[in-house]
Amino acid sequence: MSILVKEHQFHLQTDHTSYIFHVMENGELGQLYYGQRIHDQAAFPELTVREEHGAIPAWRLDHPDFQPETLKQEFASLGKGDYRDPAFQITGPDGSRISEFRYRDHQILPGKQRLDDLPSTFDDSDDDAQTLIITLVDAVTDLTLTLSYAVFPHQDVIVRSAKFTNRGQSTVMLDRALSLQLDLPDANYDLLQFSGSWARERHLLRQPLRSGIQSVGSLRGASSHQQNPFIALARPDTNEDHGAALGFNLVYSGNFLDQVEVDAFGTARILTGINPTEFGWQLAAGQSFQTPEAVMSYTSAGLNQLSQQMGVFYQHHLVNPRFAQQPRPVLINNWEGTYFDFDEDKLMAIAREAKQLGIEMFVLDDGWFGHRDDDTTSLGDWDVYAAKLPNGIAHLADRIHGLDLQFGLWFEPEMISIDSDLYRAHPDWTVVAPQREMTPGRNQFVLDMANPAVVDYLYGKISKLIQAAHLDYIKWDMNRNITESFSDTLPAERQVEFAHRYMLGVYQLYARLTTAYPHVLFESCASGGGRFDLGMMYYAPQAWTSDDTDAVERLRIQYGTSYGYPLAMMGAHVSAVPNDQTGRITPLDTRAAVAYFGDLGYELDVTQCTAAEKAAIKAQVAFYQAHRELFQQGTFYRLDNPFAGDGNVGSWQVVSGDGRHAVAARYQILNQPNPAYHRLYLRGLLANQRYRVSGDDHVYFGDELMNAGLFIPHLLATTQGVEASADFSARVFTIDAID
Ligand code: DGJ
Member of which family (predicted)? Predict the structure, then answer.
């Protein structure tokens, strides 16, 4: 049993954690505890102790110590004496914004059901999940609030969401509807956020909490390059291997808010959900609004453990089960190899060469449709560009399949170019506010995904190509954010719903395509990692991590991303040098050594490679294939943090589930003269097991590799013929058990 109920006290237990809340005297829900698992008790008097504080309102005269502002609340409203930011806000028919949701009943259901119109977690694998559903009622508006808690005991994860249903006669306005609130009794935590920009996504930033509100979020209509919905709280002394940490993420791809408020009493309120700015929802009589789901997880065993348990959870309970454990193909993508300049011969030459190198899938990127020679035209016209590919996409796909390669195609479904047949036929399908000029972004505009006709059109076009070309894979790109939010299909009073309705349209298109064509592997992309979130991962099991393919930049981007997402979600490609984003020249082996830790691909014109480079790529692909299960499904450990100190070194490791096989890699950005002594302390091995490490004759015990570490010799630059610079170096070690 993971859900223990006693006299209106709810104790959600996972293998290692407890989450406890109860019905308070006023009928609302109060939080008691979230952390390391504790024994169940009939009551927890120590956790409900109250002290009366001066100069703040109390619930009733005869309850002077029941001061909402000082209570740990479960899902708080504003207006009855709790002045912290609330989890929701509703404007009633008379304009009043007061709500009092009181406990009515609860149900415990086996498993975890998917949500209807939103990406969500599930329990198809019968992993002992249970769902607690609590119904609360506001008597004045006759609204019900349903709080859902899905408990996944073995990954120490609880998934939460809220649903508002209007059972009254009049329409009310939902002004704010977040997914998760958690009130912690102290604020002695660091906030870990993952911030950046295009080509510099998800850099780790760790700072202590302080009084007031700290938040990350997006108002771009996408989860964004700039901030990621994953955040963590860690005790100041928590590191990768030890200490308490809490992780929060949102199963959503649009505007979001993650916020921590530290109040006057030193408590911390975490809120996660749809960003209330640019949100509102008219709830007419009889209608419901379901929030996206939020995931929360706790561990006392450090940040590696937090990432691992959340990652295993996603692979089992969020990612499409058809692909979650399936080996992901090593692909070649023509984007950086050709950009818009290709024809069938050129593509076939690349594909043939790629096949020789052991690559398994060919992906045709941007530029195959309409009359697209640059980024100014044709988005929306998803028919082949005959001048480039006179024989059509199906013909090209047949030839690629004939080489025994899989074939994938790039789309950017949500976008439209002014110079397109689609725009000429349906200018009204473009997102623009009345009498306002459209703000361009990358020479393109956004389609109104809140309009069902747009979703139907895109479904028809993409379906036709999937069928004609027998597509194995689709890269779904999205290269600009929304401006002039407005939909011709919504009445004035519902325009505030646009941002969320846009996302619902995107999800509907994904749902229809993945249902009709279940064999197609989707990779999501948004100018690289601009929509790297759990909402996308529900439909597209992997995402293009960043447009930045420079090995040095990728080390940091993938390291930061790994806090919140497992390696199988990260597309990682080897590209040519000088790198197109940074101009940096890094060794081919270093580029591969970074890209191994993800879903490996190549993104260069392999026909231009020298014989030595081709031999190296062939060896890299074979190495990756030999260790693919480790790289895609292994347990990942961060070892040396490239965001720490002078940032010159990073290292990480993957280990098999049985602890018998591992691959570790250490990266050095700049070679230093006479450098510090360095050892690599491995993790996750079997202490009493003997191992061999590649390039080394010594036989090690696991405990030696983990505690004494592996000596990393200094790279010496020779004074004669320094054709191989020791800058940007990487060393990859395989560690295998021997009997
Ligand atoms: C942005 C993506 O991130 C790139 O990989 C590429 O697909 C381009 N768009 C194509 O326009």
Answer: Belongs to the glycosyl hydrolase 36 family.
* Residue nearest atom 10 in ligand 1 by C-alpha distance: 366
Strands 690-693, 699-701: pairing kind:
antiparallel
Averaged pLDDT of the chain: 97
The structure's pTM equals 0.98
Q: How much helix, strand and coil, in percent to the nearest 5, is found in the chain?
A: 25, 30, 45
CA trace torsion 418, 419, 425, 430 (10° rounding): -20
41-81 pLDDT, tens digit each: 999 999 988 989 998 999 999 999 999 999 999 999 999 99
> Which of 606, 540, 541 is CA-nearest to residue 573?
606
Active site residue 477: yes
Confidence of residue 675 (pLDDT cuts 50, 70, 90): confident
Which protein residue's CA is at the shortest distance from atom 1 of ligand 1? 527
**Gap from CA of 414 to ligand 1 centroid (Å):** 14
Between CA 89 and CA 500 the distance in angstroms is 17
Residue among 297, 445, 458 nearest 382 (CA): 458
Q: Which residue has its alpha carbon closest to ligand 1 atom 2?
A: 527
Choose which residue among 544, 557, 570, 575 to substitute to test ligand 1 binding: the one with the highest number of ligand atoms within 8 A of its C-beta. 544
Name every protein residue with a CB atom under 6 angstroms from any ligand 1 atom: 335, 365-366, 410, 477, 479, 525, 527-528, 544, 547
Q: Please name the residues in contact with 678: beta carbons below 8 A apart, sequence gap of 6 or more.
A: 649, 711, 712
Q: For residue 509, how far is its CA from the centre of ligand 1 (angstroms)?
A: 20
**Helix, coil or strand: residue 46:** helix
- Running DSSP on this structure, what letter comes out for residue 513? H
Confidence class of residue 677 from pLDDT cuts 50, 70 and 90?
A: confident
Q: For residues 559 and 666, what is the distance between their CA atoms, to the nearest angstrom?
A: 12
Strand 361-364 and strand 406-411: the pairing is: parallel
State which amino acid sits at residue 55: A
| pLDDT above 70 for 619 | yes
Give yes or no for residue 325 having a pLDDT over 60.
yes
User: Is 580 annotated in the active site?
Assistant: no
| pLDDT confidence of residue 722 | 46
Q: What is the position in ligand 1's atom list of the atom closest to the CA of 365?
A: 7
- Residue 672: the pLDDT is 87
Given the residues 477, 548, 550, 727, select the one marked as catalytic.
477
How many CB atoms within 10 Å of residue 240? 20
Query: 625 CA distance to ligand 1 centroid (A)?
Result: 26
CB 275 within 8 A of CB 256: yes
SS3 164: strand
Q: How confident is the model at residue 714 (pLDDT cuts 50, 70, 90)?
A: confident
